[in-house]
Amino acid sequence: MKRYRSLAVLLLAVLLLGGLFGCQKAEAPKEAQPQAQGETGDLPDLGGRKITVAVENAYPPFNFIDPETGEGKGWDYDAVREICKRLNCVPEFKEAAWEGIFDAMAAGEYDVLADGVTITEEREKIVDFSIPYASVQQVILVRADEPTTSVEDFIKDEKKLVGTQIGTTNEIAAKKHFPEDRIKSFEDFGAAILALLSGDIDGVVIDNLAANGFMEENPGKLRILGVLKTDKPEQLGFVFPPGSDLKAAFDAAIQSMIEDGTLQKLNEKWGLMMP
Asked: What topology is assigned to 138-227 in CATH?
């Protein structure tokens, strides 16, 4: 009897120990799994905030109205949507006239201005800019049949009239190279291009990106005569009201787009040069 009792005790002990180690194995912590990264990652989260984005809808390739769909299209639309995807915000694009836009931005009428805006010290006195997302050069856009073959000869010809857009760095560049009586400033570049095509003026001082955009809209009718000599390429950035918290958020998003190659692909799509 004692022998059987000893065997029973031994079997019971084995069973208890087996159960104990089994429980320990089952309850051991699982190997840590990497967390899936959301759209914003380490970027600021704007919590679905709506932001008003001012655009002209008359400045290709940055912004224009698609004649087939009637919808806004261009680099600005693609870029701001990508930025808002990363920051968790909702862009609301609003058409705005260029004239007076900096006063409107300073007054906070819009959250962001996306219009291929050149960063200048004078403008930085009244508004805030993002970090640059592209660079441009000033060129002279002429009709395809323009007989003049060089920028220098075009400038020297006192009969040549040029158009540009009022209140832009393009207008400033035009005034550096042409006397004022040979310059016609228009409300927007669309009007200047129409004047060029109709023969009212002979050229348009405009940045190379917008020139390419208007050439695509008017195939075979326009060509770039050449680049105006300037100190250095101009840097473009988004514009914000002074002290806006969106500046830091947009800067972070743009930087992330630079680092992962998204900005490069977007600029290549629309013909923009990296800053």
From this structure: D-Maltodextrin-Binding Protein; domain 2 (3.40.190)
140 by DSSP, 3-state: which?
A: strand
CATH classification of 49-135+235-270 is 3.90.79.10, yes or no? no
pLDDT beyond 50 at 72: yes
Structure tokens at 208: 């190379």
Compute the distance between CA of residue 146 and CA of residue 220 in angstroms, rounded to an integer. 12
Please give the pLDDT value at position 229: 82
pTM, 2 dp = 0.79
Are the beta carbons of 76 and 114 closer than 8 angstroms? yes
Q: Bigger pLDDT: 16 or 247?
A: 247
Per the CB < 8 A criterion, the answer to whether 203 and 145 are in contact is: no
Pairwise CA distance, residues 179 & 90, whole Å: 45
Q: How far apart are CA 178 and CA 91, in angstroms?
A: 40
Query: Boundaries of CATH 3.40.190.10 in the chain?
Result: 49-135+235-270, 138-227
Give the N- to C-terminal CA distance of the chain in Å, as an integer. Answer: 94
Over the stretch 116-161, which tens digit does the pLDDT of each residue have?
999 999 999 999 999 999 999 999 999 999 999 999 999 999 999 9
Give the residue carrying structure tokens 């809209």.
Answer: 217
Instruction: Give the strands of the sheet with 72-73, arranged side by side.
Output: 58-59, 63-65, 72-73
Query: Residue 230 — very low, low, confident or very high, per pLDDT cuts 50/70/90?
Result: low
The one-character DSSP state at 274 is P
Structure tokens belonging to residue 199: 């023969």
Three-state DSSP at 63 gives: strand
